[in-house]
Specification:
2 copies of one chain form a homodimer. Chain A is mainly alpha-helical. Chain A contains 9 helices and no strands. Chain A binds a DNA duplex through α3.
Chain lengths: 193, 193
Amino acid sequence: MGYKYNKEDILNVGYDVFRRNGYHNVGINQILKESGIPKGSFYNFFESKEDFAQQVIRQYGETNNCWMKDFFEDCTLSPLECLKSFYSMMMNLNEEDEYSGGCLVNNMSVEIGRQNDIIGSEANHHFIGWLNVLASVVEKGQNLNEITKDFSPLELAEYMHAGFYGVLSRTKVTRNRVYMDIWLEMTFKFIQA
Amino acid sequence: MGYKYNKEDILNVGYDVFRRNGYHNVGINQILKESGIPKGSFYNFFESKEDFAQQVIRQYGETNNCWMKDFFEDCTLSPLECLKSFYSMMMNLNEEDEYSGGCLVNNMSVEIGRQNDIIGSEANHHFIGWLNVLASVVEKGQNLNEITKDFSPLELAEYMHAGFYGVLSRTKVTRNRVYMDIWLEMTFKFIQA
DNA sequence: TAAATTAAACAGAACGGTCTAATTATTTTA
DNA sequence: TAAAATAATTAGACCGTTCTGTTTAATTTA
């Protein structure tokens, strides 16, 4: 028999709580309460709140990277349509909880990415990983003359990435997906060859 | 002789501090210290931290709205070039402080816009004001056949707005303007007629 | 002098984090 | 294999600090 608690479960609770409430608005006690773990155990697993947040980001970043790779590997549509379908799915996921969270990594970036090097570079690292996945799909689309060759795959990936987070952030105050849907239409009209 | 302190000065300090540090990471004491105002005076002027933050957003939102209107009124370039020049200037402003703050209203939106109705709707209100200013310039560009008519002025405004905040947020962790510059190039290539 | 403002002490709650003790799992020894 | 020793985990009381906000009194202004 293993021990009662494991890091992964606690990290998943952290993901949920941080995503919805931000970093500085969340106390360790809230994490403890929602995961049922005692404080002593928490500090046995994690050095500090900062260390915990970093590991939360890391786990989600890696999980999401795998998830994205799988999605594009399994996608039978054309590269351009796969990308569009990917963002469409992301939007649907965010609609499910009424845009109450957005993307943890983006939220953390905006809230503390500039002040906190640990969190900032962890977030950036995973962004880069995701962007490379996107860029590889963009490149396939370019090779099929489906996507514009006026810009590099990474440039186009960064463009989509930023645009998506821009409209996703916008939902935090509009609380509807109208301009997210229009963004999707516009972007994929713009980038096609 | 008036009194020693006035609301506007305190709000300006709040703007600075909140923009760089976020909302929950800032205590009232920090505002008091940096503005030199005593605590008693603060709670004489403002009901609460939340009320203060709302007024900070309001003042900046209105100031920025005027500033944008003036910019576009004074701009002698074509509508499309005025818009491009506007975003270029915004980027330069953010480069000056090494992307340490970004946009207060966007930061607040992302951090607490979804949890806090007061802040969220205040932020949204000013976003809408700015978007209308942008949209009016877009419309002029469309009338001059300079900007695509495939989308409405407001849709294009929302698109630029979101994209800009997306790349601006990205600088929080990349700490350079590379993809911001590319975004500008791409966006204005895409939206032209 | 009456009202507004300043000043600082004061709450009570929440914060991140530490500490000691008890319990459980694992490894070592007999 | 059974007992003993060690290591890891669990438990939560507790620490000093900081948080937002209140209160009371002194001072300044109109």
